[in-house]
Amino acid sequence: MDFNPDTWGTFGQWASAGLTGLAFLTTAFVVARDTKVRKQSQARKVALMHRS
């Protein structure tokens, strides 16, 4: 198998792409978690106001 860096890229390029993808997935996870926490917090406020 001929590994040509002009075609396949270098290790640095692959590492950069992998880390960028990992950062994107981490950001998506944090946004989803934050949204869930915010909705739960809002739901607790509504439930407390309803009981009063």
What does this structure look like?
By secondary structure, this protein is an all-alpha fold. 87% of the residues lie in helices and 0% in strands. It has 2 helices and no strands. The chain is rod-shaped, with a radius of gyration of 22 Å.
Structural class: mainly alpha
The tally of beta strands, per DSSP, is: 0
Poorly predicted parts: none
The percentage helix is over 70%
Shape: rod-shaped
What value does the average pLDDT take? Answer: 87
Integer-rounded radius of gyration: 22 Å
Distance between the termini: 73 Å
Strand content: under 5%
Number of helices in the DSSP assignment: 2
Biggest sheet descriptor: none
Q: H/E order of the elements?
A: HH
Briefly say what this structure is.
The chain has 52 residues and is mostly helical. Helices cover 87% and strands 0% of the residues.
